[in-house]
Amino acid sequence: MLWSTTTWRLIGQRLGIALITLVIVSFAVFFATEMLPGDVAQILLGQAATPEAVAGLREAMGLNEPAFQRFLGWLVGLATGDMGRSYVNDIEVVDLLGGRLQNSLRLAGIVTVICVPVALTLGIIAAMFRGSWLDRAVSVATISVISVPEFMVATLSVLVFAVWLGWLPALSYGVNVDSIGAMLRAYAMPVITLSFVVAAQMIRMTRAAVIETIETPYVEMALLKGASKLRMVLVHALPNALGPIANAVALSLSYLVGGVIIVETVFNYPGVAKLMVDAVATRDLPLIQSCAMVFCVSYLTLITLADMIAILSNPRLRQ
Amino acid sequence: MMTDTPLVSVRDLRIGAVTDSGRNVEIIRGVDFDIAPGEILALIGESGSGKTTIALSLMGHTRRGCSIEGGTIRVGEHDVTGMTERQRAKLRGTEISYVPQSAAAAFNPSKRIMDQVVETTRIHDLMPRAKAEERARGLFRALALPDPDTIGERYPHQVSGGQLQRLSAAMALIGDPELVIFDEPTTALDVTTQIEVLRAFRRVMEEGGMAGVYVSHDLAVVAQIADRIVVLKNGEIQEQGTTEQILSAPKHPYTKELLAAFDPVPHVAVKDVEAEAETPILEVRGLYAGYGPIKDGEPLAKVMSDVSFKLYRGRNLGVIGESGSGKSTLARAIAGILPAYRGEVLLDGHTLAPSLGQRSKQELRRAQIVFQLADTALNPAHSVGSIIARPLRFYKGLRGDAADKRVIELLDMVHLPPTLRHRLPSELSGGQKQRVNLARALAAEPELILCDEITSALDTVVAAAILELLKELQGELGLSYMFISHDLSTVEAICDDVLVMYKGEVVEALPAARMSQDATHAYSRLLISSVPQLDTGWLAGLEQDPELLAAFSDR
Amino acid sequence: MTIPTTTPRKLRLPTPRNLGYSFGWTGRIGIAIIIFWAIVALVGNWLTPYPVGKIVDWDYFGGVSAKYWMGTDYLGRDIFSRVLMGARYTVGIALAAVTLACTLGVILGMIAAVIGGWFDTLLSRLLDAFNGIPSLLFGLVVVAAVGSSIPVLVWTLAAIYMPGAYRFARALAVNINTMDFVTVARARGEGTPYMITFEIFPNILGPVLADFGLRFVFIVLVLSGLSFLGLGVQPPYADWGALVRENIEGLSLGAPAVIFPCIAIASLTISVNMFIDNLPTKIRDRAE
Q1: Looking at chain A from residue 104 to 143, which residues have their Cβ under 8 Å from any Cβ of chain C?
Q2: Nearest-CA distance from C3 to chain A in Å?
Q3: I need a labelling partner for B182 at 20 to 30 A (CA). Which of A42, B411, B464, B470 fits?
Q4: Cβ A292–C140 below 8 Å, yes or no?
Q5: Alpha-carbon span A292 to A289, nearest angstrom
Q6: Is the pLDDT of residue A84 over 70?
């Protein structure tokens, strides 16, 4: 009743596209890492290994099978939770990932909880008072943050909060988190940095979405009925901007994926991204592939979510 | 009347706008007028005359970048110009209310109609919700809306354009205002729908005894509803007087020009129909066209079906119909832009392939198409000269000085100075653009020109001049026109024969000069009788079968 | 009789205003900084006071002094010289990548819009799928696979940002394609190359250039990010991101060796954004 068949069809279509994208992405991830120069077995055993030993390992690892077959096997493994074993320390990738993923998700969760209310409030207020000093200040601040690399926001935060003010530890690694105060201090730097990056995006998108609805003829009509500015924004503009705003939130959160890679490295935070950067350094293939897939899946989930919200919030499709 | 204190009095109103370069331009330059209680005043003018700006300023509202810079506006007891924004908000909806140009855009798409209609009473705390809804239903009835008791429960996209326009009037009247501003409320509607909306407006305004401001560019519409008319041009009043006086005894030359553009100039056929032996320049046999994916040789959305006609050399064929009648599709199918899926198009006796790609350069050259919106029909990135020179080069291989010489000749043919060829389209007026558009078609030396609503977007006076030019060119070059329009008087002014289209089919073919007398099909008669006349008693005296109206108009 | 009968004609400089454009001061500052870095990237090697790789001071992480304008790095090399040379890598690689990405993307986008049909659908779907990979991650995976070199960086960054440029140009071209002047040209019988170059391209050029600038900023950010992770430009060469990485140890000392490369990146990316947000606009006066 609420959603028409067109809405369902569009949502189904979007999910289908996401699934196809996921397959293409996994294809790309698998074959990009397969292009690694040099023989994996050779690398693992070192230069001193006998040719027989290398051949034996190749056989054991299934490297002699055709690439496409290995790709399918890998896909099935991923789907069933078997991600293979790390080359470097011979531990199940799943076990390596488990705790790290929890850490990364906790970081992302805290950032989301902080960012969303702050960014929405600032974005809506900036749009309501378009052209005011507040709006201009917010615009300058957000454009500055999105124009600089994440590592710079991170280094600047360290410089200000840890070096100059001395309030917080520069690194989160090795801090024991048994009290709330300690935990706050441990997470503060990564959270502050990520929040800046994500909130800046979110504020800009929210502001743009609200301004677009404020400029519609039906909001002008409300003005001509004698509505106050607050009523115009709260009753007429916001309900129609909800879709675009939710879309903006989901899209901005996808910036977490890129941001987290830098932030975990800078602060030595034990998350998936740190794991992956280290894996790239040691060329630990199964680990790189799995980490890459974790990121791609989260990123795809967020942008697909954003698209679906955009579809659902279109009142013309709701019948 | 003279002894009454006017309800509204506007003195020396000046409104400024800031341009892109930061320069201040006065767009309303010292306007004075009064409105008596219960009187309906029309603001008439072309685009850019400032009529909507003035109307909105009565509510103390100016659009972004504009501001009231001088003069006074008094409405009832209130000095609108001297009020704070908060005080003005109190006035809006209760004493002055507004009926927008496009109700479809002015209704919030995510809220029910009833919530929006009674919103004024809630903002100003005028009456309890139940009473407000009761009053709204009463207004729906007075405005002759179908299902008055339940229509408020729907969302805006679930009702038709004509209904929304009347619902927006209910929204304006709910707060029992003393003055209602109508901002071109019927411009976006088809003529058959316009009649009903106009009737409804007239009835509620008469019953309520409210004063009104009716903004329009259409003198005939205004003649039906206004007591007095103010004629505006470039932000200044040209003339004001009672409707009778303006229509029958205009004083200002500009008003006379406006009225003259309205008078149908009788069309004299360049050539009579000769023996049937002659090959028609254009013949269409059982043509079908539509959009969307093709299944079993037929497209998903069939827009036009079974159209047949013959157009002889030197004669003009008009195609009339309302939005959605398929008249533009017909032009596109003939030009090959939208390939017909069935039927034949014959140019001078030779069958043309359905799609553009399969037609020869010569076939394409002989029939040219000119579009409605001159703004979008000219590439903004190229100069007028290179726009006209392109067909010369494409069809004839003309370039350099020879092409330049020909461009000047073509500009002269459409009465434009040769220096214009160095300008960009954005630097031309609407009428100039349409002339360049024509010059480009003429550059191909066509035998047939398909004109798709080419005068519809132009102001009345400019449109009349374009029609004159078309006639003149026809005399000089022996062209034939196929003229598509929703405006009957335009078609009457230039065509010999007329096809009336409705829902993708030709319902009747008529001689243009005797359209109203000869029409036999119910729809053609309804369409022809719905065209407003320059006569104050036309709407009151108009008798149309309500059943017929209901059957054919967009309800 | 010394009164001149005619006033001498004033020399009209081709300033934006005289050409009929208005150009805000933020935009002017933006373009000035962009031009400054472009010049540094071109002739930086003649401006360096010290050889880039030479250890000039035994004191590492030295402060700002008359001798070393931006201090010294973790080995005691002159940061000012290294920032000047870093401009060449950051600006050069980003410019090459963005040019490749936009040229390919815009041409494909216009063709897809004009031709339409299955070609359009297939290409759009495929490139959208590539958009579904986070950019920094894509870079990480490729670098992990084939190692980092300047050509690899250029092609990888171009590949990351090409689908976006395609999507943007296609959307613009689809809009232009519905305009009547395009229909007129089609009805005249014009072919696809003419449609793209004469009808579509001139009308999307403005937004495409703005998009070029934005994409340039994104590429500078990702390139710096990769270098910061040690996966971008490899020693002995160093772009600005690599300079930050090299000297990150000095962060706790508040060393200028970390701060100045950061300022260099920020000044470039912020000024490009400032310029794009305040492009010269054609003055249109309705009263004229």
Answers
A1: 143
A2: 51
A3: B464
A4: yes
A5: 5
A6: yes
Nearest CA in chain C to B336: C187
CA B501 – CA A62 distance, rounded (Å): 72
Domains in chain A and their CATH numbers?
A: 5-37+83-318 (1.10.3720.10)
Query: Which of A2, A130, A223, A224 is best to mutate for the B interface (most B CBs within 10 A)?
Result: A224
Burial of C59 (0-12, 13-18, 19+ CB in 10 A): exposed
Closest chain A CA to residue B124: A226
Per-residue pLDDT tens over the stretch B247-262: 888 899 988 888 887 7
pLDDT of residue C288: 33
CA distances to A100, A126, A252 from A190, in Å: 15, 27, 17
- Of A264, A38, A32, A256, nearest to C139 by C-alpha is A32
In angstroms, the CA B224 to CA B246 distance is: 13
Nearest CA in chain C to B440: C184
Give residue C13's pLDDT: 61
Instruction: Show residues of chain C in contact with B337, CB under 8 Å.
Output: 183, 186-187
pLDDT score, position C1: 40
ipTM: 0.79
What is B282-520's CATH number, 3.90.209.20, 3.30.1390.20, 1.10.1510.10, 3.40.50.300? 3.40.50.300
CB neighbour list of residue C108: distance below 8 Å, 6 or more residues apart: C123, C166, C169, C170
Whether the per-residue pLDDT at A39 is higher than 50: the answer is yes
Highest mean pLDDT among A187-191, B52-56, B196-200: B52-56
The domain B37-56+86-260 is classified under which CATH number: 2.40.128.50, 3.90.226.10, 3.40.50.300, 3.40.1030.10? 3.40.50.300
pTM of the model: 0.81
Contact residues, A window 293-312, toward C, CB-based 8 Å cutoff? 295-296, 299-300, 303
Find chain C residues with C-beta within 8 A of A158's C-beta: 251-252
Q: Over 50: is that where the pLDDT of C287 sits?
A: no
- Give the residue on C whose Cα is nearest the Cα of B452: C180
Domain ranges, ordered by start, for chain B? 37-56+86-260, 282-520
Compute the distance between CA of residue B470 and CA of residue C72 in angstroms, rounded to an integer: 79
How far from C118 is each of B358, C123, C124, CA to CA, in Å? 20, 8, 10
Write down which chains contact chain B via at least 3 CB pairs under 8 A.
Answer: A, C
Q: Of A47-56, A296-305, B280-289, where does mean pLDDT reach its minimum?
A: A47-56
- pLDDT over 60 (residue C4): no
Give pLDDT tens digits for A131-182: 889 998 998 888 888 888 888 888 888 778 777 777 766 655 544 555 566 6
Instruction: Give contacts of A152 with chain C, Cβ < 8 Å.
Output: 244, 262, 265-266
CB distance B378–C181 less than 8 Å?
A: yes
- SS3 of residue B206 by DSSP: helix
Chain C positions touching chain A (beta carbons under 8 Å): 125-126, 128-130, 132-137, 140-147, 217, 221, 224-225, 228-231, 241, 244, 248, 251-254, 258-259, 262, 265-266, 269-270, 272-274, 277
Q: Which two tokens stand for residue A312?
A: 């659902």
**Which candidate from A22, A262, A303 shows the least CB-CB separation from C225?**
A262
Q: How many CB atoms lie within 10 A of CB A62?
A: 10
